Amino acid sequence: AQTAAAAAAATAAPRGGKVDAVVIGSSTGGPNALAEVIGRLPGNLRVPVLAAQHMPPVYTTYLAQRLDGVGALTVREAIDGEPVEAGTVYIAPGDHHLTLRPTAAGATVLLTQGPPVNHCRPSVDVLFSSAAAAWGRQTLAVMLTGMGHDGRDGSVELHRLGAQVLVQDEASSVVWGMPGAVFEAGVADEVLPVDRIAAAIVRLTALGAGFRRGAPVVTTPAG
User: For the chain, what percent of residues have pLDDT higher than 90?
Assistant: First the structure.
């Protein structure tokens, strides 16, 4: 699987360009990492943010309520059929996959209870793959701390289209399984400490800055 991922990375489209949406995947250690990232994002963020955190029902409700109070952005559990809007963070409800239905105005939420993917529902791979269909290379993917490899294949798919992929570094991750799998697949554009990911999101969504194909930029904490 890793060889196939590396081959996909080698044939990926050029990086960069306008960003229309941010998608985030997380698992073990994810709630605190999400709070760190979302809490640092500005209220005037010009794109929607959609996140899949491995959690059961009810717990995702509490997570959304907690995250809604950490920063300037509105955070809530995603509701089936609602349009996604800039400046809002949508959390996948427990036991549901969070997917998108493209529309002329952007996209609407489509919650499903399809089979678990990587033993997970919500699955990061499902969210990332759906974002690839909805926004293609204009997606910015962020992989945070978590066990396993959910999100790796979706990151490869997005990378192949030319989308940008940010990965939390090992030092700041509780478990470097999911971000490490994306890194080892060769599709991480930047590897960042969790406290620098929000700044990268702001930079890329505001300026439309891109990356050159090549080795990922690895940023380590100062000092």
Answer: 83
